Each structure stands twice: as C-alpha cells, then as structure tokens.
Amino acid sequence: MTAAVTQDLSTDLRLRLYRLQVELRESEQRAYDLFLQNLVKGTSHLSLGQEAVAAGFAAAMEPGDLTFCTYRGHAHTLARGVPIEKVLGELMGRDNGLLRGKGGSMHLTSVERGVMGSYAIVGAHIPIACGAAWRAQYKGSKDITVCFFGDGTTNIGAFHEGLNLAAVWKLPVVFVCENNLYMEYTPIGKVTAVPNPAADRASAYGLESILIDGQDADIVYRTAHAAYDKARSGGGPSLIECRTYRYSGHSRADPAKYRPEGELDFWRGERDPIRIYRERLLQAGFDEAALREIEDTVRRRVDEATEICKAAPPPSPDILCTDVYADGGSAWRN
Amino acid sequence: MTAAVTQDLSTDLRLRLYRLQVELRESEQRAYDLFLQNLVKGTSHLSLGQEAVAAGFAAAMEPGDLTFCTYRGHAHTLARGVPIEKVLGELMGRDNGLLRGKGGSMHLTSVERGVMGSYAIVGAHIPIACGAAWRAQYKGSKDITVCFFGDGTTNIGAFHEGLNLAAVWKLPVVFVCENNLYMEYTPIGKVTAVPNPAADRASAYGLESILIDGQDADIVYRTAHAAYDKARSGGGPSLIECRTYRYSGHSRADPAKYRPEGELDFWRGERDPIRIYRERLLQAGFDEAALREIEDTVRRRVDEATEICKAAPPPSPDILCTDVYADGGSAWRN
Amino acid sequence: MAELTYRDAVARGIAQEMERDPDVIFLGEDIARAGGVFKATVGLVEKFGPLRVRDTPISEQAILGAAMGAAMTGLKPIAEIMFSDFIAVCFDYLANQLSKSRYMTNGQVKCPLVIRTANGGGFRFGAQHSQSVENWCMMIPGLKVVAPSTPADVIGLMAAAVRDPDPVIFFEHKSLYPVKGEAPDGEIVDQLGVAKIVRPGANATILALALMVPRALAAAERLKSQHGIDCEVIDVRSLVPLDTQTILASVARTHRVFTVEENPRLCGWGAELVSIVVDEVFYDLDGPPLRITTPHIPLPATDVLEDQAIPSVDRIVETIRRSMHA
Amino acid sequence: MAELTYRDAVARGIAQEMERDPDVIFLGEDIARAGGVFKATVGLVEKFGPLRVRDTPISEQAILGAAMGAAMTGLKPIAEIMFSDFIAVCFDYLANQLSKSRYMTNGQVKCPLVIRTANGGGFRFGAQHSQSVENWCMMIPGLKVVAPSTPADVIGLMAAAVRDPDPVIFFEHKSLYPVKGEAPDGEIVDQLGVAKIVRPGANATILALALMVPRALAAAERLKSQHGIDCEVIDVRSLVPLDTQTILASVARTHRVFTVEENPRLCGWGAELVSIVVDEVFYDLDGPPLRITTPHIPLPATDVLEDQAIPSVDRIVETIRRSMHA
Lengths: 334, 334, 326, 326
Ligand SMILES: Cc1ncc(C[n+]2csc(CCOP(=O)(O)OP(=O)(O)O)c2C)c(N)n1
Ligand SMILES: Cc1ncc(C[n+]2csc(CCOP(=O)(O)OP(=O)(O)O)c2C)c(N)n1
Ligand SMILES: [Mg+2]
Ligand SMILES: [Mg+2]
Fold this sequence. Notes:
The complex is a heterotetramer, with two copies of chain A and two copies of chain C. Helix content of chain A is 40%, strand content 10%.
C-alpha cells in the first residue's frame, strides 16, 4: 500500500470526495435507523465503513461510465448521483423508490445514472459487466465499466470465467474487490486458498496484482483513475483489491458476533475513512466550518429524503404483473 | 521441463510403462478403425498421442486409488486395468460393454477398478473428485484421488471452485491438466489469459506451479509419484500441467483441419511418446525382441477383444428403465 | 411430546442422523460456526466438530460436487444450498451429474445424499431470494424431492432422506422456520412418497405443499363454514416419489381437484399433478381441475406486491368457490 | 424458393439478421473459425469478421453473462450454448438474471438477446448431450421459448427472435440439422407465438414440437390410413408466447388432445399444455388428454435403447389408437 499523496488533487475534488463519503455514511446510517423503526422492508446490506471505496471509484468516473454492484450497493448507487429518497424509498418499499418496490434493496438500478444494477447472486454480475464493456469495445465508445464485489465472491465460478474473458478480450472493465474480511459470517481467510483473495489471483488472468488501502479515498481515487485511463485507452481490464471493513453485520439480521473483540473498534477508530479524510483536509488547511457546512447540508438532505419517503404511498397493486416482458405486461400467451 | 532420469525406475516398471502405452495406443487405434467401419455408436474422443500421461499417472497409483476423467477417458480407464473388450464393447453399444451401452463412450466407469467415472460436462468432475478425496481425509484412509482434464477446462467456473476447495481443505487429490493445445477446435491460447492454462494458475490456489513434458512417461511417472506421496502424507493437492498432443480430431466428427501445417507431423514424429520410450529402452540395453513380444501380445489382446465385442449382442430393451433409482427401477410414484 | 419450531426441527433432524451414523457429514456456507443464516443449524458444529460440520467457500458447484464425490465413495453428505434460488448456479450437479450417474454407469455409482435448501417467499427478499423451485427439481429424472410443512415432518422426512439410497432435495420453507408444532420425543423416522390427508372432505381435493398447506387448511375451513364446500386437503409432502395412490383415491372420491403451489405458473408441479389426474381418473371428474399458482412473473420485493403474488387464503377460497359455483 | 438443410438455415437466418443490423453480434465456443461443432455457423466469421462473430473460452456463464451485459447496453447478441444440456452450467443467467432484470428494475433494464442451442436426442450421445430441455426454460418467467421444426421456420423464427425486445431461447434440434426443406428466397421474418396447423384433422389434436412434428405427422398418416382416426397436428413452434388460441380452438373442434414431447415425463411442457386445456375447455373434451413423452429416465447412449426412450411413430400411433378405442 502506498502512502496518500494528495497534492495534485484539486480542492474541489477533495471536497467532493469528502461530501460523497459523508453522504454515503449518513444515508446508510439513516437506513439502519429506519430498519430499527421497522420501516425498511426485506433485507438490507449496509456499506458503513466502506465509504472511501464507493466515493473514490465513483468520483473518478465520467458520466456515461457504467457501474455494476451487488446487494451491498446502496453506496455505489448513491455515489453515482441517484437521489437519496429514491434509494431509501426502495428500501422502504414505497412507490417513490427507484424500482417502485419491485426490486428491493438488493437490486438498486438507475440506468439513467449508469447504475446498471445490483445483483444478489454472488458473482453473477462479473460476466455481465464484461458484456457491457464488450459493447463499448465493439461500438468504439469511450465509456468504461466498473464492477464491484466482495472478497467472498472471488471463490465462485462466475468470477473466474468473467476475469478470464475480460483479460482475453482486453475489455474496458475495472473489477473492484472490496475485501471487508468476511464473506457472510465466515472470515475470508478460512475459505480462501490465498491471503489476498483478488490480488493474489490477478496473475491467473495475466493481470497486475493491485492491493490498496480502501479506507483512504485519495488512494482509491488515484488507483481508479489510473485503471480507467488504461481501460479507456485499450489497455484492458484491471483487478483492484481494496482492504476495507464493514461496521454493521452482513445484513439486517446479523449482529456480527463472530468478530474478534476489538476488531470493530480498531477499524471504526483509526481506520475510519471519513475520520481519516477529515483530518487530512484539516491538516491541509481546509476550514473546519466548511466541512461542518457540508456535513449539515448532507444531514438536511437525508432528513428531507426520509420525510419524502415516509409520506410516499406503497406501490399500487396494479404493477404486480407489469414489465415482465417488453410490451409492459406479463402475458405468456396470445 | 526437466530431463528424464531413468536409473531408479525398475526394469519391471519400465516394461510396464511401455506395455501400457502400447496397449492404449493399439486400443485407441482399434476404436478408430471400428468407427471407420461404422461399428462405434455415438461419439468418441481418442487419446492417441497422449498415452504417456495416462500410463505414467496410472502406473504410479495403488489399487484403491481413484481416477476421475473426462469423455476423453478411454485411456485412463484402460490404464487402471479395465479389460479392453469392456471399453470397446461400450463404444460399440454392446451388452458386454462396461455400462451395457447405457452410458456410452463419454461415461466409462469401473468402480471396481477405481475409475469413478468419465464426465462429459467440462469441469464438472473437478469438485466431484474433491468430494472423493474429502471422504478419504475424513475416514483417514490412505487412498488418493487423481482427476484428469484438458487445457480448455481451466476456463470454466467449476475448475476454480474445485481447486480452491481442495487447497483450503488440503485434500488428497492430484489434478492433472492434459494440455493438448486445443479446447475443441480453438487453440487454447486464443481463449486463455495465460500461456500455461493450469501451471500459471496454480498460485491462485496457493499451489506450486508444475509444468512437465507429457510425452515422456518417466517424467510423468516421477511427477505423479511425488504428488501422490504428498497427498497421501497430508500435504494437500497438486496441480500438474502436462504438455501433450492429440493426433486425431477432437471427436469422431472432427477432421482437425484447424491445425497448422506440420504441427501434427512434429508431434507424431519426434514427440511421439511411444517412440520416445521405445528408443530410450533400447538405448538402456533392453532387448528389442522383448519389446516386440509386448507389442505382439497387446495386438493379440486387442484383436481378441474386438472379436468378443463383435460377437456380443446389443443390450436387451428391458434395461431401458432400470437403475434410475437404487431400487433398480425408475418408478417416481407409489 | 415437545413443541418446537420448524427451524429447531431442522437442527434436531440433522443431529438425530449424525448421532446415528458417523458417515453423515454436513457442509455449506456459514452453517457451522454461525449456525446458518436462518439459524437452522445452530449447535451442530459444537456437537459434531468441524470435521463433520464444515463451512465452505461461496462455491455452490464445489459444495454439490464435493457432496456427490463423498456420497459416491461411501459417505452420506447433507449439503446446504443457502437459498433455493442458488440452485441455479449449481444446477449442473442436480440436472446432469448426481441425478444421472447411477443410470449412466449401469448402477455402479450410488449417490446417497441430501441437499437441503431454504425455499419460498414471504420475507420480501425479492426475485432472487424468494422463489419456490420444487419444479426445477421435480423435472429431473433421478432426483427425489421432499418439502415438509411441519416440524415433525421436518425431522421424520430428514431422517428418511438421509437414510434413502438416492439423492434427495429437501425444501425447507423460509416462512415456516418460526412456526411451532408438536413432535414426539425420541427418534422420528418418516417415509418418502407418502402424502397426508390433513383434512378429510367430501366435495373437492386440494393438493398443497409446504407453506401452502396451512393456507389450504385455512381456506378449507372458510369454504366449509361460509360456502358449505367441504374440501379434503392433502399435504403432498413428497413430489418424487409421488403418492399417486392417496391423491387419485381422494379425487375419485371428491370428483374435483385443485392444486395450490408457489411455483410460477408455467410447468409447475401443479401442472404435473393435474396431468396425472386427468390421465388416470378423467371420468371421475365433475369439473375442470384448476391450478392456483403464483402468476408467471419474477417475485416482487415489497410486501403489498409479494403478498399479492403468492397464493393467499383469499385467493384459494375465491378460486374454489367460483369454480364450484357456490 | 430454395431447398436447404435445417443446418444451413441456421447460418442463413443469423446472416440475414447480421446483415440487417450491425448491432447483432454472435458469440460462442468454436462458432467462428470452426463454424460450430454442428457446422451450423459456417461462413459467418468470414462474412462478418471476428469482432462480430467471436469464439469464446469454455465459459458458459461468461457467454450468457456477456450476452446479457451487451444486450442491456444496446447490442442484440446471439449466444450459442453448444448443447442444450449445458444450460445447466449457466442456468443462473436464464433463471435469475436475464429473465428477471426487466421486472426487478421496474422496466429500466432490457435484455434483447437470443440464446441458440442444440437440443434433443438421436445421436447416441448419452445422458449429458441428448436432452430436450425446453421445459427448463418454459418454467422461467421472463423468457421466450422457441423450437422450429423446418428450415423455413429456422430462418423466420430466428429473425423474429433477434428482433424481439425480450430474451428468447431458440432450440435447434440436433437430429433435424441434416433435414432438407423449402424456403422462400429473400428475407424471411416470422412471428413468435404463432402455432401452425401442419395437418388438419377432425378426431383428435396432436401437439408437437421440433423433431416430434415429423413423427406426429407420420403417426397421423398411419392413424388415418390404418385406423380411420383423423388427427390434426399442430406444430406448437413457440412455447412462450404460447398460441393458446390455435391450440384451444383445435381441441374444441376435435374433442381430444395428445401431446408429443421429448422432455422426460415429469413437469414437461406437455403437462402445462394439458393443464391449460383442461382448465379452459374441459367440457369440450371427450376423453382424457394424454401425454406421450420420454420416460422419466436419463437418456441411454446406445441406439436400441435411445430409440426406445424417445417417442417414436409407433408409440404415438399405439397410444392414440388405444386411447381412441380404435
Ligand atoms: C451464489 C450465491 N451464494 C450465496 C449467496 C449468499 N450470500 C449473500 S452475500 C454472501 C457473502 C458475500 O461475501 P462478499 O463477496 O465478501 O461480499 P460482502 O457481503 O462482504 O460485501 C453470501 C454467501 C448468494 N447471494 N449467492
Ligand atoms: C460445460 C461444457 N461446455 C462445452 C462442452 C463441449 N466440449 C466438449 S469437449 C470440449 C473441449 C474441452 O477441451 P479440453 O478441456 O482442452 O479437453 P480436450 O478435449 O482437449 O481433452 C468442449 C468445449 C462441454 N462438454 N461442456
Ligand atoms: Mg466480504
Ligand atoms: Mg485440450
């Protein structure tokens, strides 16, 4: 892991990275509160603690670039500019949700914003992301595709097939492994043949081994940028492993008792991405009031979004059978 | 690839390796002749040219060790001592066949001889072999499991899942990649991200990279022996890539026109495993008459086997619905 | 007699078989130390140790492949596929491998194993974590398919499945995990291929499975009390082997049949059962056999939509009432 | 009008669509330089180049995943799965991904793609290379399922499938590849969801698909000439969308229905069609609807056994004759 060098990042960009991380943190925290209030339907998988990864990769993307993520996708969806109320609304199963409640928290999608879906079958989206990148290559368009997944995902077959295809076809796709140390409840090291589940496998696809500190948004941003440039200029795919940590349990049902004492405190303390970034900005001479202003604005937006969602009705039962087929319906017969 | 060192192999073993290779060659050649005479039903996948791999790995196995192979499994089945007529009979769809015609050439199995099946879905048997090895580990029995597959198989998901599981659980299984340079008709290099499809991926499973000359039965035998010893003594799995070549097309329907001019001649000439081995034996002072005697005996056995098969009837229609379930029948209802 | 949940019955059923036979081993994702994501396997690793209760990587093909290899060579594995939807990522093992190897090898290879998996809707998990996929398995020759609806059946059918010499898919219903029921003390061993008449009735036969059994029962009560239609409710329990004797005898008595299933409409097990009925007792029927199913759609996530999709007591009542012209 | 084989019709159908629309791309194993293992795609890479006709690794999940990703973002991929049995190794894409993404995303994501695959028996390839798996796909909401029986239908239905905005599974029958038929010159564009009455008849309706169509026709001829039973034969062609109008109208006219399918018995498409018929035109039926299927067994390899397993003209004739008491 290289040290953060921040000089060449613009002031604007640095504030944007900070704002984004705060927004992801506050939104996820709110999702958790709403769950405690029994207002979130179904399951949810929070990214608390993993904000730097989502913020850094998204900030380095251009409009038109594509995101593929997993059920743990709230942060990646928000980071592409999808309004908070559309995400919270979907979690709450309201008609104003991104998918009007049809998909739920595990399938957040905003084609408009380039979020081409959240996938709940581990690894399935890796080949799908290849296909999106293949389209760009075939059409000669300059967009790139970014595909996020967890450490546990590196042990499933679709990972292997997708990585090999991307490498052989030199596709403009960037694979991002968020290694948060656990698959569901099992430590990743117990079920994986190599210590770094993605980085130690890059060579199996002829790719460079890249392992970075996922708690440092600047490092993430720079790494992302380099990989995107390479992809855009025909250099093919990258596989980037980010060391990170999730503060909450795997999903809403999980109290995460399997973690060793002190582990959470360590990460939430000195390894917290927002704390790290805030301190760096202050040290670099940014005005604390400006940071407070960002934090307050974000909180207001999250509050507003929450109210919008609470006021929103559930979807109409009429949409139960719509949009199975392209004609808008579900008729399987003439 | 290391040079062959033969001193420490016993005379008996060396003759056995020779005999085995000749037997595989003659049997496969006969299968091809029978196909030309329209006596082979369905498809068939010959191992002509790949005899040293099958002979070397089988000769190093103990009774009770287990073989898992693919549709290209005639040689591996014969190498464990399954009678030639049982293999040819199955290819010809006769009642005397190993499976009475129910399985066909792609599913040769002899539980009695430790041949736990030939599998026709690429890669499927890799996790299955893990399970057999897991049983040995759990039961504390000393047998090992050997799993053969092709270069093209390294790109399918099941390969990845099986290799990782075997490594994590330290299973007594030896994976053997027969790299014959082609998947079906496509050169393996065109669809694989690394030059050596298995050896270059061993590190992704924390395994040593092993790449050997698959045309030299002595090298194969020694490598097999070392891997088996390691597996038997609790050292976990090995992944061994053998460079080899198939002389015929992928399957009976394939004239193999996609191969560059001269390639077949090169392999069939100076790289032929039987020629290599015969010359080595002669140089080491073995009597040519003894080798001729082996060759003649094998040919006689293949002739006899052929006659047995030609005389054998097709299976009775009565077996159509037997052995779907353990009660011997196929009743799905009471 | 003890009261226990369907969830606890799973652990008890597995423990009963592991205690009896040291060749029974159990593998799956997060099943050991964590006790399973549905907490249905809590305590097993403590009781039987990490060599018999084994956490795996996220590798469903490796899970089923390893189970098959172990079964072929003498063990009796129980493999968990966490959600039945994930059968799709390891379907080759079900469809082409463990179901067919006995036949293909002329009886040489045996695959005595159990695949248990959480099936069905009700948790607002959306389209990839809520499906009922009994039909994906019923259509594959060589498999046996079981789906208990009560805690006692969980234990008894688990025992029957583990002791069966063929591969058995054991569908546990997610929404039944918290449901309580009575179970006798001591060993419980049931039989595959035996349906249960859980409510006798004279006017029509309702065939149901898993979560649809309590719904069919509730519907039958209402049909009786409000509409005077007396339905016989059969808990099919086992799709393969199928207890056609009990089913056909009931239809021959009642002259009408309705199936209630969570499968989406096309090619569900209801279609198979209806086809068997019309093939074999056509002339006993007084009216069309009807299927009550989830519509042919992916499952929606949010509650108002999911509740509408899966057959409800209301829908069962309405369909039967209308069809019986009451 | 030209005579061509079913095999050549595949390449012609794909070429017709690739010529029309530069967004149509084609991928699969050994499809380009080698022209496919069934030689059904010979000449395409020469005509359209290696960027549009692309050989892949042995990675069926990557093939379907890549096709889906390309379809979602604007292309119209045709993906080959060499043998339909291999659908089992990439079933997640069919069952959970490309079929469901439109619904789950409230209509945002579109998946206009075609998966073509060699289906069915007759080549003595054994249990893992001979299956008919139309039912594996028909049961999945969101998919369309097509299975042509003639060269002209191959071209026309391929065009319809490629131009369709939904994912379509296109089952080519291995045993039909060498069969010749007439096809009009020039562009051929057919329609999904339209069955064809290939032989009108008054006494019974036979519903068949793919290789079973010529067999049903031969059986109908024999039933007529030898037993005086005049059967209407319907080539169903498209299982989803299903032409229930043509089917139900025919049954209402003939009062009897028989399905002929290669699917193993349980939960085949025959069960679905029978269930629809009894649900909707029960009172028009003069006798039980019967299914003529492969028995519920894995397919055997050798000729004498395979020929016995798959419905034959003899078996169709016998079943219908006996059921019609002729
Ligand atoms: C094919 C499949 N197997 C299992 C699951 C259940 N499951 C959901 S998330 C998860 C853990 C994934 O771990 P990782 O890839 O590290 O991602 P993280 O949740 O840590 O972000 C598992 C096992 C699934 N959704 N899909
Ligand atoms: C899952 C799957 N995909 C495709 C095939 C078709 N197929 C049979 S053999 C083969 C090539 C395998 O190549 P390799 O692993 O190198 O083995 P070889 O035939 O060269 O011994 C292919 C693609 C298959 N049987 N299974
Ligand atoms: Mg993780
Ligand atoms: Mg090969």
